Probable transcriptional regulatory protein L2772_00380
Amino acid sequence: MSGHSKWHNIQGRKNAQDAKRGKIFQKLSREIYMAAKSGGPDPSGNPALRLVMDKARAANMPKDNIQRAIKKAEGGSEEHYDEITYEGYAPGGVAVLVEALTDNKNRTATSVRTAFTRNGGSLGATGSVAYMFDRKGYIVIDRSTTDADEDQMLMDVMDAGADDLQTSDDAYEIYTDAKEFTGVRDALEKAGYKLADAELTMIPQNTTPVPADKKEQFAHLIDALEDDDDVSNVYTAAADED
């Protein structure tokens, strides 16, 4: 985890994601629907629904869209989606995890495999790279939104129950055990901090630099995966670019 700045990568991809806002809302609606259908429509009693609703709000998804997905679940819709994780390697041997939510496993498997093979990667067997990642809670506080210095932030983060704090010129990045994520997030918000990002994610234990001659291919692979309607999240062990 040391030295790995997700925030750097998140900022770097923000404009591209903004251009795909409609597709992102479609994927979030699917996640909200499944969370509400399996755990109930009340986010106060359904942590999974609350998490995805927070994710939707962070993506500036309209409230009407969120409520529509919840009402669809309440209305007894028979739609069903399976959660599937694909594992593989991008060009240069970089480990990749792909999380999908699909109503057609064959379609999604074919699309994901095609994205890998057409862009210099290879799809692996179950368990081939998952062990290289840890499920973590991840929280970002933009330094421009707080007067807290590093010492104060460290004290508040540890008091909230977090595992690690990484500091850059732009942000405080906080990592938590997955089970403690909700409690840490709520404690920091209660302490008055404005959170720029808060999510459960997969963090690589070690990172791999993308060779210079493979960077374009690598970018095309990640774009192809993220463009897939059935793909919810793409995680890589690529080392951060300066």
In short: The chain has a mean pLDDT of 90. The CA atoms of residues 82 and 105 lie 8 Å apart.
